[in-house]
Amino acid sequence: MKNLKSMKYWAVALLMAVVALLPTSCSDDEVVIPEGAVPGWDGHHVTEGVVFNFKRKIVYTASGVNEIGSVKILLSDGQNDIQLPSLLLSGDAESVKSKGYSLPAGTYKIKSYTAYTPRHEYLFDAEFDDADEVDPARPKNRFTVEEGQVTEFVVPIKTREIMTMDFLRNSLLGICREVFGPDESQWPWDPKKYPYPDWEGLEFEMDDYDRPMFLSSIYFEGIKDGKETPWVKMTAIPEGTISNIASVLSITVTDIPGFKKLPDDINRINSLNIVSCVNTGVEELPATLWRCPELTGVFVVNGQMKEFPADIASARKLRYLNLEGNQLENFSTSFADMPDFESLSLSHNPLTTLGEEVFCTTNRLNELRLADTRLASLPQSIAEQSSLRSIDLSGAKFTAVPEQIKSLSNLLTLWIDANGLTKVSAADFAGMTHLRQLSMDGNAIGELPVLSNANLQWLSVENCALNTVPDFSSYAGLRVARLGGNLFTTLPEECFAHNPKMRVLSLSGSDKLTSMPRNTGLKSKISDKEEGLKIVEVENCPNLVWTMPAEWKCYDFTGKTADDYEDLMNPDGLPDVDVDPMAKFGCVGVLKNGSPKVVYGK
Q: In the chain, N or C terminus with fewer CB closer than 10 Å?
């Protein structure tokens, strides 16, 4: 097994991702050995009992990984444990079956089994949970033997079959044939090209010798490097093609406007974690998608969805749902049965209502994106979503800070830009005791009161019709202040004297601003070991007359973007290295295009 790269591969290749590989545990006192199994694997000589059917899970692996050849099954009849003898599995490419076991009529539960190679070499132990009690929608590990009959029971674990290179290659080329027809010159994957990692859009899990173990990701990209690819003509992934490749962890379809449909048999891909459709014409998702047992993320961004299913409860492992840029007007999906669900994004939809059932306390939702919607209110149930850390309500229709979010004490980030707010109070944010980032740009609030949020590190109140500069003395940890586009003409003397951690000050777009105080309280270097101010933005301030302090050692940062100093704006800390070769310790970068009267001190 030295070629196996990780336990992740072990789970994909030998069992299934949801079953823990644990040793069986039953004492000799508990085990009841039946008189034996009657020969004949198909059960023809068994008049009352069971045949175990294992459906195959097909993956592509490196050579040398052993196939399951036999199993030793431990049952329970509710009173006693029953250890069945080990027997070979026989069958075809779809499934393998055990011999018939003689069992008296009754109901049984599989507790565990031990797997062996065809040479009866030990492979692994697998223990079942009570899947039928935890989730009735999933395959059950119980079966019933009726008097005088032989039951064939499909075990809710798939055995592994090695997919050869030729099999995988043919499956991939089958997609091309279905989409583009028989003319191979029109196919995006060259059937003469080998090995598969050279084919565009395929990602493989590699072993320690850099050999492909299994195909993990497939990307269908309509535009690559600014040019259209053959995939731009694809309207759907054909049935029975990609679903044959059961090892795939993620499928991505991007920049294909005519793409409408994922395959209905997508649930056959048992390892599937992520599905992404970005810039496509997708209007709906197949109902079978939610039955993919390992599904954790669904991203349908800039699509054509007008409705979303209310019931996706079978996707118990779902963590992320992003439906940005669709045509959703209402959303009422419940995530109550998804304990790990943590991120919901419905931004850029004509959304007017959210159902009360969307928010519940049985999951750990911490990110909610509702930007550029038509929402003017929130359901009351959101007030109980204490796990929320980040909310984006920018570009919505709120005229006041929603009551439902005022008591979210664990909230770290709130964006409520470009709404209809005309006034805010300290009480609006007082319950957000851990708030670190607050942005209210584009709301004509006129005045910003002194907030009680002592943890605030990032504040943006650009274009808020402020006549006076906010009082920053209560925010000792403030790192970023964005004040541009307001109505004040100057800043108070030493207005940042109580903010030693200030790193970014933006006043851009302030055409009313005419002067700056002699001493702002800002320092470019706090000590020999600690940086101070790093970036000042004063672009498009045509009336500002300001000679910046010589000790700032200013340099031109014009032409740079927010990405160039993104880490500086991150309240979690400063970057380990300078963001610009010119930016040295104790120096301040300045953006001043459109501000001719701003000069550097000498």
A: C
